[in-house]
Each structure stands twice: as C-alpha cells, then as structure tokens.
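Database export, one record per block. Field names are fixed; values are copied verbatim from the stored entry.
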Amino acid sequence: MVPFAEFEMPVQYAGILKEHDAVRHRAGLFDLSHMGQFWLMGDEVAPWADTLTINAVGTMKPMQARYNIFCNEAGGALDDTIFYRLENRWLLVVNAANAEKMWELLDRRRPAGVSLENGLGRGALIAIQGPRSVEMLQPHVDVDLASLRYYFCAEGRAYGVPAVIARTGYTGEDGFELFVDGADASLVWNALLRDHRGDGLEPCGLGARDVLRLEAGMPLYGHELTETITPVQAGLAWALKFEKPEFTGKAALKAQLEADIYPRIVGLVMEGRAPAREGYAVWLGDRVVGSVRSGSIAPSVGNKNIATALLAPEAAAGGTRLAVEIRGAKHEAAVVPLPFYKRPK
C-alpha cells in the first residue's frame, strides 16, 4: 500500500505479473475509488463544458461516455477526463492528483445555469477488466451487458445496490466500471471476488494497471500529458474539435499542429534487457533529443522493455534507431508506433 492523492492505494496484491496475466486472459478487479467524481446538473452543462474542453460534449448521446481533455491557454493539459451523459445529469471523472485543481476550475468558471456536486471520497469506483468480464459480471447486474456498447453506460443495480455501469476502462481490454456509493463498495468488491475467484478473477493494484495501460498506449497524466505537454504532442489530436466556436487553448493548439515542429510522444522498444525509466535521456547520434516519460517490461509484447518518450520531431519517425542513457551507458532502442498491444478482436 502507498499513499496517493490522500488515499491509501494498493500497488499489488499477489504480484504485478500475476495480476497482469489475469486481466489479459481472464479478468481483474480494480479499486479506483480515488478518482475524482464530479456531478454536473443543469441545461447549460454541455455548452459550458464545450468551452473548457478540446473534444465535443454537446454532441454526446444520452448514456454515452467520451474521453476529453481540459487545457490551459497555452494548450498544455490540465487533466484528461471522461464525461458520462446520464438521463438527468452528467458525471465527470478526473484524475485523483488533479481533483482539487479541477474542482477549483469548474467552481470558478461555473455559470448561473449549472450546479456542481463533489463526490470525491464519497463515491466509489470498481472496475472489472478482461475478456471474461461480461460473463463474470452479468449474473449480478440488471443491465444487458452484451448490448452495452463501448464507451456507453447504463443506470442499474449491481448486487442489488444502485450503480452506474459503464463499458469503459484503462487496460486495453474489454471491461466495465461500476460507480457505486462508498457505503456499498465493499459489498460489491467482496461479492465479485467470492463468486469469481475460482474463475480466475484477481484483485489488481496500481502496478498492473500501469503496465496494462502502457502496453495499450494510453497516456498517464503527469507522464505523457502535463501542463506543458499538449494533447497534440501526446498524439491525441484526434480528440481536438476545432469546429467548436471556442475552447480554452484552441489557438495555441491549432498553431502547434499546423507548424508541426513540436516534440512528440512516441513508443520505444529497448534492444536489450536494460529497462528504460522516466527521466532517462534519449540520444540520436551524439546529441540528446528527448527523455523517457514511462517505462516497463511488457509481458504482452514478448517481455520486451518498452517505453514512451518525448522526442524532437527529427527523432520521432518509426524505425529510428536511438539510444537511452542508463547509469552513464547508452542502450540501443528503436521507435515503434503506439499502441504496443491491441487486444484480439
């Protein structure tokens, strides 16, 4: 257990590799109750949120979820989030370390027609992720999971308690996230493990989650996205909706994308067994061209050592041969496309 954003969080239960294997081949259970949960109400939520975020909010369908990023005026990412459009309200999930910052931003910019409720520390979030998540969860919810599309959600019950059930996740696998009241969380968690531990369901910690998301090419705030690393640099320009009349950071992001001279996030695969870690310098020939942002061994990619790095554009093309400096020695690496891993269809 480690302290994280004023919560005590599990790094691992039975071990990172065992938990990783469960998610890729069966299912894993994650306690993500540290994530910030903000409830937004009012007719003006969508048009207001569209002025603060790069992706479209107003075009979301009822019960749809959508990835989105809040930026500063310079285009740097304040946080990457998920909006859920429910029947009569909106749920915004923010990163735990940014919860206070994001609440302050929303509260300060809130128009008269919008009301906010901060569920941090009161609402729980339990995720079940993996190829067998449908069959494990279905007997215990009153929602038809097979018909629930990716990045959509439903309001129902799990083990008899109210839950927002979303087909979302952060592992690269199919799966669901259950938003329940904090008072009901241990009931749902313990019941799922009781009923499906024998089927291969494993509780999973932050360690496995980080390896899984890195293999799947998903950014982690503070690593691939920061207040100085923009969505354009992070390879998330697909989320930019420049057709929106205005949003914070629009001009800066448009200029950056058009100039195309910015450092950018790429994938690296190490040639040997040396692991790349955050902050290690990356060399092209005799000069430093960037640094590592995340690194890990990748069980889903033949146990190779993989990493993301923020690199100068001349070093970022696929196949470019580079070197990562590790304790004074240079170790060969190659640029590869993201993601490193895609789940089988």
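Remark 1: The mean pLDDT is 98.
Remark 2: The radius of gyration is 20 Å.
End of record.
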